[in-house]
Amino acid sequence: MTDSDALEPYGVRAVNRTLDILELLDEPSRPVSLGDVVAKTGLPKTSAFRYLATLERRGYVTRTASGSYLPTRSFGHPWESDLDELARRAQPMLEQLRDQFTETVSLGALDLHRAFYVSVVRPLRSVRVDINSGARAMIHCTAFGKALAARIPEERVREILDMQGMPRFTSRTITDPDRYLQELARVRRAGYAVNNGENEVGARCVALALTSTVIPLAVSLSAPADRMPMQRIQQVVAAFHEFDDAFGARGGTP
Question: Is 96 helix (H, G, I), strand (E, B) or coil?
Answer without folding.
Answer: helix
